[in-house]
Amino acid sequence: MYPTLLHIGPLTIYSFGLMVAIAFLTANWLLNAELKRKAFPNAEQLGSSITLLALIGGIFGAKLFHLLENPSYFFEDPIGSLFSGEGLTFYGGLITSIVMIIVYLRTKQTPFLGIADAASPSLMIAYGIGRIGCQLAGDGDYGIPTDHPFGMSYPEGMVSTLSARNTELVRYFQELFPGRPIPEDIIVHPTPVYETLIAFLFFGILWKFRTKQLGMGQLFGMYLILAGIERFLVEFLRMNPLYMGLSQAQWISVMLGVIGSIIFIRNKNH
Question: Is the separation of the CB atoms in 85 and 16 below 8 Å?
């Protein structure tokens, strides 16, 4: 894995930060193109403002939700957990960004669902690109131990798979493979790779449907449904605490899927 890509004098280029930057630049470009196609006034200024709000809300919300899901990290190292590059929960960033953008668009008297439709393909591909950063950094978003041939390890990742440095992963290995000797480096599901591939596939679906005769908000409803399906399924391979049988991300996935379905159905003729 390559958490750090290169050093340019005193400047350090981190793989995760670079991919997040590429994700937001790509999303901004696609959003601006869609806003222009839909003839929104001041499309580039509007798109840039929305992207900036998504960046701020995304990082803040992602960190906040991660600490709410894993409060022990905060109590062990309050300052370090707040300012570290690891530990970001996508749904926290998505929800926080949506709230901030809704408030902003109300001041501009611009319909949120119209903007959300234009942004839906951008959101999906940005998520996929961001997961490439997770893969390169080995930031702990990988899955549970596995013995399948497509498994891999992250010995030099931000959250290493070396058994001597990851007691939680060792515990999962012992639960899944009782009686087996614990390897020095534990093979796990490369879930960031799975998520990237699925996100690119779903981006293609949303990109194709963006020119269809859909009601305002329906494409956004599709995005919520697809994003919910993707995350709900991949969570079965992730190491997250469960609440009544499902992880926090899975419960949010269900909620987003329901909201997306309601938006899609109610706005069929809008």
Answer: yes
Whether the per-residue pLDDT at 81 is higher than 60: the answer is no
Half-sphere exposure of 194 (CA within 13 A, CB side): 19
Element (H, E) at 5: strand 4-8
Q: Do 235 and 227 contact (CB within 8 A), yes or no?
A: no
Round to whole Å and give the CA distance between 66 and 83. 12
Sequence-distant (≥ 6) Cβ neighbours of residue 211 within 8 angstroms = none
CA–CA distance, 68 with 80 (Å, rounded to integer): 15
Condensed to tens digits (0 to 9), the pLDDT of residues 201-253 reads 999 999 999 999 899 999 999 999 999 999 999 999 998 888 999 998 899 99
State the Cα–Cα distance between residues 126 and 20, nearest whole angstrom: 8
- E-strand spans in 116-176? none
Q: Is the pTM higher than 0.85?
A: yes
pLDDT band (50, 70, 90) for residue 13: confident
